[in-house]
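Section 3.1: Structural characterization of target chains.
Under the original work plan, the team committed to producing a structural model for every single-chain target entering the pipeline before any wet-lab resources were allocated. The record below documents one such target. The sequence was received from the expression subgroup and is listed exactly as submitted; it comprises 298 residues.
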Amino acid sequence: MKETPLVSVAIITYNQKEFLREAIESVLNQEYQHTEIVIGDDCSSDGTQDMLRKYSEKYPGRFVLRLAAENLGITPNSNVVHFACTGKYIAWLGGDDLMHKDKLRKQVEYMESHPGCSIVYHNLEVFESSTGKLIRYFNTPKDSYHGDIGVLIKYGTFNGACSNLVRRACTPAGGYNEKLAIASDWLYFIETLDSGGTIDYINEVLGKYRRHDKNVSGSQSEFYRRGIIDHLTTAEILLQRYPQYKKEIAYRLSTIHRMARRLDYSKNLLASIRYNVFNIPAWIMLGVYYATFTKIKL
């Protein structure tokens, strides 16, 4: 590569000290070293902030710390980190996830040779934290999509959160939408492609996604439930903002409703969407609901 662009490794964390050290070490051990490690701790009570201060003292100039004095929540904390990043690229990493040592090098090489690409992601090992056992791979040949904004709208977050390298200049000016308390990344990635860039896929396993009993994305957790509501709210935003993609939005809504069927609170999910009969695209959302009505537990 002719230049060595700065990569901001963006980490949000809350009471993950037991895993965060491993995540940080996986960044420090990267083959690609021109990085800043931007960490937003959301007022942890487990000693995380003291540990981070020690890391910053040990590696002067490598860390950018944003240590909250009170709990902000996932999306506001994500924005704190997002706006603290100064690199040409942002690599998002969960505080409990891991990078393979060649991850950043391969992703930066790809982005530098594909100027039309706004996001590049890769496959992940999903592993059991307590045993290290491989559970599955995040992507399969059937769900490793690439393309323009329509692909992200239709298929949702097929790009594992800790697999993404994002061209910072393409990210939304307002960062994450704070109306979405938990699951704001889908809209963030869609808006990153708003100017016409693509999301591309490197068909290699370059990171590890940890599964444990504290995952906010667990299917029975309250965070998961609230996340589905955020996805429905995102679909409403998309209908208003991108009516030309109504077919793709309807497809994604059908998937979200299938996810909701396993939960007992489906009627509350539907009530969370502000249907407006005078908003012409809203009929799509109602249509998806009635099409799946007999399969949703009310």
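The chain has two domains: 7-211, 222-295.
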